[in-house]
Amino acid sequence: MRIAVTGTHGQVVQALGERSASSGCTIAAIGRPEIDLARPETLAGVFDRFAPDVIVSAAAYTAVNHAEAEPDLAMVVNCAGAGAVAAEAARLGVPVIHLSTDYVYAGTGNRPWREDDPTDPLGVYGVTKLAGERAVAAITPDHVILRTAWIYSPFGTNFVKTMLRLAVDRPQVRVVADQVGNPTSALDIADGIIAIARNLVADRSDALRGVFHMAGRDEASWADFAEGIFEQSAARGGPVASVARITTDEFPTPAPRPANSRLDCGKLAELHGVILPPWRVSLGPVIDRLVASGAFA
Length: 297
Ligand SMILES: NC(=O)C1=CN([C@@H]2O[C@H](COP(=O)(O)OP(=O)(O)OC[C@H]3O[C@@H](n4cnc5c(N)ncnc54)[C@H](OP(=O)(O)O)[C@@H]3O)[C@@H](O)[C@H]2O)C=CC1
Ligand SMILES: Cc1cn([C@H]2C[C@H](O)[C@@H](COP(=O)(O)OP(=O)(O)O[C@H]3O[C@@H](C)C(=O)[C@@H](O)[C@H]3O)O2)c(=O)[nH]c1=O
Ligand SMILES: [Mg+2]
What we know:
It is an enzyme of class 1 (oxidoreductase). The protein is built from 9 helices and 12 strands. By secondary structure, the chain is of the alpha/beta class. It has a domain at 2-157 and 184-217 and 261-277: NAD(P)-binding Rossmann-like Domain (Rossmann fold). The strands form 4 sheets. The chain has a 6-stranded parallel sheet, sandwiched between helices. Helix 1 (11-23) crosses helix 6 (186-202), helix 5 packs across helix 7 and helix 7 (222-235) crosses helix 9 (279-293). The longest helix has 22 residues, at 71-92. It starts with a strand and ends with a helix.
């Protein structure tokens, strides 16, 4: 199976590159400068030569705080850019798997969100990602929109690397304990995407298409996640800090985040047979690699 994916240095694209070898897939990562989602016209024809069976739309404007200051750029990249990727998939007659986010939800309530629950993003990033979902769905019915969350990995920028870096200089980090979600390894996301891609290629049925949640099993607050990170780092001789559990009010940020970000992933399990491992299990190998390489500094 041939999978084209947008981006080069992103967490999900790098994880797909790693996981493709063992899964018998050929991956082409197509990113800047060849394509620029801020100039959607640069997408025209870029996948033709590779002739993919599936296109994965993983590149996005992901700087949640910065998006508040440049909403127009975030909207072009996350909406028009996503639409341009989907249009190429439609033109080639192949499915598109488009990555989206828990930040499309307002974070109210206290049960995990289901795919048909009302969306109501709190910040610019979430607004633009929701607009991107709608653009993709309007362009081609042959899509899977995968809402995932709280991605960590040995690659790119993420909360695990931030915590390890902070712990090098500080005895204590202050972390919000009143935002709850599902930490998700990019490596598990890659495995899930490959399984979904195979299903889409093998089976044309509508039931496999649409919006799905895909996140790590078990929930955590960001403070719980930080504690888990330091527990596993300590076990491997890596950096450690104590975690001061604070409230969102005590950690002001330009973009508001949802308090309840938990995703119910039952639909994906039922229809695609994909269940991601618990985040504590998947965190181990990621911390192993980061501590061994020191690549969090
Ligand atoms: N990170 C997270 O916690 C979560 C992410 N998501 C979604 O999952 C997807 C993958 O996220 P993740 O792997 O973490 O992303 P990263 O933040 O690690 O990387 C962003 C990727 O997007 C590319 N990109 C950004 N702007 C442009 C542009 N103008 N033109 C072309 N490419 C661009 C980057 O390019 P380059 O390779 O040149 O650096 C990079 O490959 C995204 O759609 C994101 O919205 C969903 C939930 C959680
Ligand atoms: C660094 C840091 C963050 N925080 C808080 C701020 C915020 O509420 C929460 C997470 O902060 P971050 O900026 O690392 O994470 P953030 O950029 O909000 O992560 C989000 O990224 C986008 C792309 C997504 O799609 C989401 O699923 C989610 O993963 O932790 C602390 O309390 N203490 C700290 O030292
Ligand atoms: Mg961030």
